[in-house]
Design brief:
With 268 residues, the chain is mainly α. The chain has one domain. Helix content is 77%, strand content 0%. The protein contains ten helices and no strands. Helix 2 runs parallel beside helix 5. The model has no long low-confidence stretch (mean pLDDT 87).
């Protein structure tokens, strides 16, 4: 297993998709901070008011949580689909499996490396957010005070779990469809459109009698988990504990399904 992880890391550490993905998550964070700073310093220029103090270091965890979902989650799906489906497109999977380790071992090593990359993207998200919040506070002459370590740790773990769960969707689709382009398209459309429509439809049935089904979707639980750390005027309907369990179930279940597909199907 260790050898498989090392080989997968060597193969993917300079992979353009992951490097570009890390750059995009940094750009998304910069765009979120830049647009909110402009709205805060130019009242009436946006559809909603933004308090300048929310961009200071004391609130940077809330800011990066908003930048990480849903755009960061969509990026995780794209990277998962590329990661799982590109070896089929290139015809390299058969070569990898012929080198010795079994299919399950190879898949486990690939999943571990992918989740490490999701952690790296989370580090980039938090590092850029912290740097920009400190820059804004310095520019505005405000005191720089950071959140408590447990708040930062919870925020980091939340975004990492959201990235892993959504990335697992891309991994499963890439393995199912056996190419990256169609898999990432299906995954992004599901996250940004199909799931939203399905949840609204289910929640409206019989005056909300089947709302519990809608509360089992990935996006609903990701939003609830983030909302539990960044509370708004309305408390999330899904508890943080349930959200963590559902996201873990999706991450583990989809990876297991994808591994089963690799184990039992012809790889050509």
């Amino acid at each position: 297993m260790i050898t498989t992880i090392k080989s997968e890391w060597r193969k993917n550490r300079f992979r353009p998709a992951f490097l570009i993905g890390s750059g995009l998550i940094a750009a998304i964070t910069g765009l979120a901070y830049g647009s909110n700073w402009y709205i805060a310093t130019h009242p009436g220029s946006g559809e909603r008011a933004v308090q300048l103090s929310t961009l200071y270091p004391g609130h940077f965890v809330d800011s990066v949580l908003g930048a990480g979902f849903p755009l960061g989650a969509a990026l995780a799906i794209v990277l998962g689909a590329i990661f799982a489906g590109s070896d089929y497109s290139w015809g390299t999977l058969k070569t990898v499996l012929s080198q010795g380790p079994g299919r399950v071992t190879v898949w486990a090593g690939r999943v571990i490396v992918f989740n490490v990359w999701m952690g790296i993207m989370t580090v980039v998200l938090f590092a850029v957010g912290a740097a920009l919040s400190a820059l804004i506070a310095s520019f505005e002459g405000a005191a720089i005070t950071w959140p408590a370590l447990d708040v930062m740790a919870k925020g980091f773990g939340t975004i990492w779990l959201v990235f892993i769960a959504n990335g697992a969707i891309g991994l499963a689709l890439g393995m199912l469809i056996r190419q990256s382009a169609a898999a990432l398209g299906v995954g992004v459309v599901y996250l940004l459109s199909v799931e939203v429509i399905a949840v609204r439809f289910i929640d409206g049935l019989s005056n909300g009698a089947y709302r519990w089904i809608g509360d089992l979707f990935v996006g609903q639980n990701a939003s609830a988990l983030i909302g539990s750390l960044s509370p708004g005027p309305v408390a999330p309907a899904i508890s943080a504990e349930q959200a963590v369990l559902v996201l873990l179930a999706y991450a583990i279940g989809l990876v297991a399904v994808a591994g089963g597909l690799l184990r039992w199907r012809d790889v050509s």
